[in-house]
Amino acid sequence: MTLTVQFLTIVSMIAGGIYLGAAMDTFRRFERHWKKQVIMRYVMECGFWLLQALLLFFLLFQVNQGEMRFYILLALICGFAGYRALFQTSYRRVLEWLIRVINRIIFIVKRILYVLVVTPVRWLLQGLLVLAGGLLTLVWKLVWLLFIILSYPIRMIGRLIWKLTPKKYRKIYSILAGIYSRMKNIATKVYDSLRRSRR
Predict the structure, then answer these.
(1) Contact 4/64 with Cβ under 8 angstroms?
(2) How much is the pLDDT for 108?
(3) Contact 66, 60 (CB under 8 A)
C-alpha cells in the first residue's frame, strides 16, 4: 500500500467517522417513532448498523480494496470524535430546521390536495347522491301515479260488484274485512315491537 493510498484511506475513514456520527444523530432523532415497539426497535437497530457497516466497508473498498489496518479503525474513531466535538450541535440544529421545513411542505401539499382534489370529489359525490335521491323520488311518484290510474277501473268494477251484491252476502264480506283488518293491526304491532327491541 503506497503512502498516497494510506493517506486517502485515513482521510476517507475520518470522513466516514463524521458521517457515522451524523447518521447516528439522525437515527436517534427519529427513534421515538418506533421506540415503544420492541420488535420494530430491534429490526431498526440491526438494519441501521448493518447498513452503516456496509457503507463504510464500501468506502474502504473503493479507497484501498477493503484492506483493514489498525490505523483505519483509529481514523474512524477520530472522525467520530471530531464530529461529536465540532459538528454535532450545528448538525442537530440544521436537522431540526430541515424537519420543520419538510413538515411544513407536507402540510401545504396536503392542504392543496384537500382543496383541489378531496373537496371537489366530496361535492361531486354529494351532488350525485342528491340527484339520485331526486330521481328515485320522481320515479316513485310516477309509479304511484301509474298505479292509481291503472287501479281506477278495477276500483270502479269493485264498487259496481259491491252494489250488485245482495245484502246477505255483504255481511260476509264485512266480517272478512274485519278479520283482515284485525290481522293487519296485529302484524303491525308485532313488527313495531320487533323494531323497538332491535334499537
Answers:
(1) no
(2) 96
(3) yes
